[in-house]
Write a structure and sequence with these properties.
Elements (H helix, E strand, L loop, with lengths): L2 E8 L3 H12 L8 E9 L5 H6 L8 E8 L4 H11 L4 E5 L9 H11 L5 E4 L12 H7 L15 E2 L1 H4 L4 E5 H4 L14 H9 L4 E4 L3 H4 L4 H7 L24 H8 L18 H4 L1
Parallel strand pairs: 1-2, 1-4, 2-3, 5-8
Antiparallel strand pairs: 4-7, 5-7, 6-8
């Protein structure tokens, strides 16, 4: 697995699209990955097409594909792009999502370490402070109905029925099977969640490692805003390394640490009766 198609649907996004594309093509791409940009224009009437045609990704990228079509909404635009997608990995990105440095590499590293078709990765989205978000906009991402990342702080997985956000998400093309965004959505919104609900039975949506920290929601970022905050974090195997995403519980730790070897018999080791690791 070394190819990645990055799908960006756009409709009259000329004001921000250039910044989005610049932030994308300047991302670090780890070897042996070979990304390709698929821009799917949804009947734009501004300079969106010209901006898309002038983008010049680095040599390591495969040639950009510009897909033109009538105004159908995000569902139709993304589906047109999927018809041209051939890569092992698909990344969905919003036309107004300006990636932080390292974001693309984080997606690629995740999928290299988690090659199963069922494993998908959710990246975080945060309002650009240059937009001067209103209290309502902030509420939307802190408990409201759109990009509510507060509800998954500290979690390693998210429910795809509620968090399959097409603005910043990656999954294997094989996981889509023949599924597509429901064409019933003629405007922008909810078509991604609807697809997530159909994929949920065979999809595990992981919160991209480091995504919250890159947006200031890690311990250091939270304490910078509130020095009096007491932050507690628990990890079974540490925050990095090959076992960082593994679950840990008392019985497993007892076995791996050798505690089980001192109870039971040589043929049938057993756990200590008390949840020793949990108590300690």
């Amino acid at each position: 697995m070394s190819s990645c198609d990055i799908i960006i649907p756009t409709h009259n996004n000329a004001a921000v699209l250039a910044r989005t594309l610049d932030a994308l093509i300047t991302q670090t791409v780890p070897s042996p990955w070979s990304p390709r940009l698929i821009i799917t224009d949804d009947g734009s009437t501004d300079q969106t097409k010209a901006i898309a045609q002038n983008i010049k990704p680095p040599a390591a990228w495969r040639p950009t594909r510009l897909v033109m079509g009538p105004r159908t909404g995000a569902a139709g635009a993304r589906n047109r792009a999927l018809d041209h997608a051939t890569a092992d990995l698909i990344m969905f990105l919003g036309a107004d999502i300006i990636l932080r440095p390292g974001a693309l590499a984080a997606h690629l590293h995740f999928h290299a370490a988690n090659p199963a078709a069922a494993d998908a990765a959710l990246g975080m989205v945060k309002w650009d402070p240059r937009l001067k978000p209103s209290p309502f906009m902030e509420w939307m991402t802190h408990g409201g109905g759109q990009n509510n990342f507060d509800s998954i702080l500290g979690d390693t997985q998210a429910d795809p029925r509620h968090y399959f956000y097409g603005s910043h998400l990656s999954l294997k093309r094989a996981a889509l099977r023949q599924a597509r965004f429901p064409a019933v959505y003629g405007s922008y919104g909810w078509e991604d969640i609807d697809l997530g609900r159909s994929l949920a039975p065979h999809l595990t949506l992981h919160v991209l490692p480091g995504a919250l920290e890159r947006h200031g929601f890690g311990a250091a970022g939270l304490r910078a805003g509130n020095p009096g905050l007491v932050n507690l974090q628990i990890s079974g195997y540490g925050s990095d390394g090959a076992a960082a995403r593994m679950k840990a519980y008392d019985f497993l730790v007892q076995a791996e640490s050798g505690v089980c070897s001192v109870t039971g018999t040589a043929e049938h080791p057993a756990r200590v009766g008390v949840s020793l690791c949990d108590i300690s």
